[in-house]
Design a protein that fits this description.
single chain; Cro/C1-type_HTH; Lambda_DNA-bd_dom_sf; globular; mainly alpha; Helix-turn-helix domain-containing protein
């Protein structure tokens, strides 16, 4: 079995696109040292679908991506645009 190398989460917690959400999901998976194939099996999806989620690739339905995020411990917040920067800075302050 291959060793899972933990990947740090994206520095900026703002999810702007599928790629940034995928990076957060990949970080959560690797920090828990779960191999990609094992995560895919647990979610009932193919290895390729898991790769597509983590790379922000096209063709993966939003419910599948959200379920992967939830199962791997990635939390998403819906924040009004006017409050986004305040929330972003608060999250970044907690990390630092």
């Amino acid at each position: 079995m291959r060793t899972v190398i933990p990947i740090d989460p994206p520095h900026d917690p703002t999810v702007l696109d599928a790629a940034s959400l995928g990076a957060a999901i990949r970080s959560a998976r690797t920090r828990r040292r779960i191999p990609l194939v094992e995560a895919a099996d647990a979610l009932g999806i193919s290895r390729q679908t898991m790769i597509n989620i983590e790379k922000g690739g096209a063709g993966v339905g939003l419910p599948t991506v959200l379920r992967a995020a939830q199962e791997l411990g990635v939390t998403l917040f819906a924040v009004p645009a006017m409050e986004r920067e305040v929330v972003r800075q608060a999250i970044m302050a907690i990390r630092d």
